[in-house]
Amino acid sequence: MNMRKIFVFALVLVMAFALAAPAPAAEVLKIGAITSLSGALQDYGEQFQRGLLLGFEYMTKGTNTIAGRPIEIIWEDTTNTPDVARERTMKLLETDKVELVTGYASSGDGVASLSLFEEFETVAVIEPAAADAIINEANWNKYIFRTGRTSGQDAHAMASVIAGASPGATVAALAPDTTFGYSMVEPFKNACEQRGLTFVQVEYAPQDASDFSPYLLRLRNTAPDYLYVVWAAANNPWTQLLEMNLQGAGVTIVTGAPEIAALRPMLPLGRTGGIGFTVYYHTVPQNEPLNEWLVENHLARHNMPPDIFTSGGFAAAAAIVTALELTGGVTDPAVLIPAMEGMEFDSPTGKRYFRVQDHQAMQDLFAIEFTAVDGVDHMVPKWVRNISAEEITPPIMNGRE
Asked: What pLDDT does residue 10 have?
């Protein structure tokens, strides 16, 4: 056999072995998921966890692979403590070497961890932490994207609902004397001014208050047309608000509809026919295929409907899958960040997109009517209209105009 024939024969053998050998395994895609799995916001964290897992399942058609890469999720609990959140974020990035991180139920946990993503040059998808501080000039960096809404979007949604019902109305607010309370009321004041509403008064009650009567009396005496109630603390003012009959004094109570647990003490408010807005309630999004799938599968697996932060976890998964399908599974920020800037993605509440300047998701919220439904133990938000993303666009705060 001459040398040419030997070479051809050898080449054929090599090709035969190559074709017979199994393909190398696709590289596992490690994603860090960090949220409040214990502590005061444990319910938020567990909702996010369920939503993220269901979102990956839906978006990958049950394969849990993205661009051929199998997903491995490494979970960490912030315990709702900023120092712990930063420490465990560091673990995900330094020890576990995740390629992308998502989560943070608490804005404090998120803000404490943001600089790490710049240090480790890793993209983070924030959900549901809502504080405007996450996208301001002091804290934001180019690796940060947020699928959840901001306090500013909430504020503009509430002002839109009031201005639509009563142009030129006078407005007051009741909120807890906390960072959360101030972060919600201050942008609301600005949103009212932009829509021709007159903001007349705010009362900040201690977050552990059990007697709201001094604050409510002062608000009743001011007699605004609308009272915007923002509350997230141990007790709640709903019973005393109704007992004091502010509506009888011409004051209409408005609020944002929160998670189902917080809607329970608001059941009497559902009988007043009041108005407000919501980020999500499982019956509110209209004709959204992702939400229909989420509701059906969440009910089947958990014997309860999905909640606000379940929807948020699903949206975070949808954004991640959409982005990595665009990059072919590449997580290098030099490739991933340009792909995500301006990127449109689906969610249970409809289409969203990341604003180029600060990577904040632009999204619709919902104007609602408060209702009470026989056999349901909480106030039920009833859809009135979508409040478009363009109508509630928050200001750009990171200096990248």
From this structure: 39
